[in-house]
Amino acid sequence: MSGLRASNATAIAPVDDDYIRLSVADILTTPVGTRVMRRDYGSYIPELIDQPMNDVTRLRILGATAMALLRWHKRSRLKSVQLNVDGHKADLKLQLVRTDLPRRQTLWASVPLLK
Question: Are 21 and 109 in contact (CB under 8 A)?
Answer without folding.
Answer: yes
